[in-house]
Amino acid sequence: MPRIPVVATKDAGLLTKLLYRFAIRRFGAVPEPFAVAAHQPALLRASGIHELLVAKAVKNLPVNIQELAQYRTAVRLGCSWCVDFGTMLQKHHGLDIERLKNIDDYATSDLFTHQERLALAYADAMSDTPVSVTDGQVAELEREFGRAGLWELTYLIGLENLRARTNSALDITDQGFTSGDACRVPLPG
């Protein structure tokens, strides 16, 4: 149970109820971070709009790189909610979620490509405290993904740091978006 209780639908304002409906249509359930954030409806709306805009703005970075880097960040920071939700998103994108069991061995595992290893190492370095990113790392990522792709990767990892640290601070834990190999939420039509 989170440190701040969720706002029940019956207690939510009209706009928050509409956001809950949208979330249920999109994810099959209201994500608990939304329902906790509903205590401050203006920030809930700002966050929701931001998430939608980020999803539309990222165009240069391959989906597997986006999803794996965010997933690795969630694992590193111990956000079980983010890991659960991120696994569901990877499944919905048709990515291999079985290999996520080997994420800690990405540096030496044949399950991950060279590009994925670079992005995962960057997620680790950005999630360290203090941040341990090197000039060489950034230069190699820029060669691999271009400047726009590098910026997208950096932004997504930073955003996942925000999500994971916020959820962890408020003790928002996994919600059951995935259950073993099956995804509770049906794949999008």
Automatic annotation (TrEMBL):
Record keyword Transmembrane present: no
Keyword Repeat among record annotations: no
Keywords, alphabetical: Oxidoreductase, Peroxidase
Domain of life: Bacteria
InterPro entries for this protein: AhpD-like (IPR029032)
GO molecular function, one term: peroxidase activity
Name of protein: Alkylhydroperoxidase family enzyme
Organism, as annotated: Amycolatopsis endophytica
